[in-house]
Design a protein that fits this description.
The protein has six helices and no strands. By secondary structure, the protein is mostly helical.
Length: 149
């Protein structure tokens, strides 16, 4: 729970399980996307976009299973699912995420995660509507295969 109005450290909502961590990422992606669609000050708009990109990248890392340094990933589903993924599950949400990973992971890392020269030297636009629609296909299949507990 965020600590507001009094001194002390801030903390995000505790997660009941590893699976709940993935739900949190999906929930935050949805929330940040909605914030990009509304009226915002310039800085609020940037905050909404950066939140969207951060959670998008986290979900790319989880679903693609390509970044094996991640603690939670489809690469090793036993940690959060208690079993390996089936071929049907891989086809439904892992494989589609590979295309999104190839398209967005590096760009998000370059323009958000690191203080790079590219942030000044290159323009980078984000079609959040297109990105959200594509990720919704992945998260819908994931939630169908692994309903929240």
């Amino acid at each position: 729970m965020l600590h507001t109005g009094s001194p002390g450290p801030l903390e995000r909502r505790p997660k009941a399980s590893h699976r709940a961590t993935i739900d949190y990422e999906i929930e935050m992606l949805d929330f940040c996307f909605q914030k990009t669609q509304g009226e915002n000050s310039e800085l609020e708009g940037y905050l909404a976009l950066e939140g969207f990109l951060l959670h998008y990248r986290n979900l790319l890392e989880f679903f693609s299973g390509k970044h094996k340094s991640s603690d939670l990933s489809t690469y090793d589903a036993r940690t959060w699912a208690g079993r390996e993924l089936t071929d049907a599950e891989k086809a439904a949400f892992v494989e589609p995420s590979h295309k999104l990973n190839a398209e967005y992971f590096r760009a998000i890392s370059t323009f958000l995660q690191h203080c790079t020269r590219a942030r000044h030297e290159e323009a980078q636009g984000w079609d959040v509507d297109k990105m959200k629609q594509a990720m919704d296909l992945v998260t819908t299949e994931f939630r169908r295969a692994f309903p929240a507990t």
